[in-house]
Amino acid sequence: MPASSHGSADLGDAGAPVSRRSSYIHGTDPEEQRRLSLLNDRLNAASLREIGIAPGERILDLGSGLGQLTRAMAVASGETGKALGIDFSPEQVEEAKRLARAANEEDFVEFRVGDAVSPPLREEEWGTFDVAHARFLLEHVPDPGAVVRSMVRAVRPAGRIVLEDEDHDILRLWPEPREVEAMWRAYIQTYVRLGNDPHVGRKLVSLLHGAGASPRRNNWIFFGGCSGSPHFPGLVENMIRIMEGAREEILATRLLDERAFEGAVEALRAWSERPDAGFWYGMGVAEGVRSQRGKHDGKQAE
What we know:
three-stranded antiparallel β-sheet, 38% helix, Rossmann fold, 302 residues, alpha/beta, seven-stranded mixed β-sheet
């Protein structure tokens, strides 16, 4: 079920508005926050394995959303580590702070409101983090390279930059519901209309290199399921909520009308009842390190 390009909600999106120059259409209402929270619960264990936080590391998490993964990284860093989460949405930041207080984790995690392109770091904080991380962020900004350059500048020499993001073209539903394919193509086109990149997941290694980091590895995190798996109904419902939340933007592409949109949603629900339904999707991961010296280091990386 191939797609085209970027501009609205996504299947694995667990972030929030992150930049004055970003185009994020999901909103921050309570229902959306519940959706994001459930996605965090599903994806965080796999993300933590890929990020590989070591005891004592200082972590910068851009586009931190509700902060669940930020807090998990802080816990993994132990008593001598700390994590700072930055998100452009004041509502998400306030909820992240509340969740941290409720979990008694305020001492080793901090949240700030700010822009991912120009993170609100104090002068003495630049170049001190051991890890800079972003998940489901680069697809929502028109210049992902600028975000990665900020991440490179934020870490110490030999510090790690870990990127996790999607390539919407890889979604496959089988047996293939044609109505859903048309809706997905229109959905992806909303990213293009907003000036974002729905295929950024395949470009993570290149973004690291372009920002002056040395790419070290890449991988996939599977985000799918099939009939018979316990999380499959929730996975399909998540996709339906995303499509319905992006309804106006999808219809604005004029690739399908209201009747076709409603038919696609119903086709997706019907497809999910098939005993042979398979949902195939994934999130790209890439890691690089900041060079010990070079033209991209320090303020020259801005």
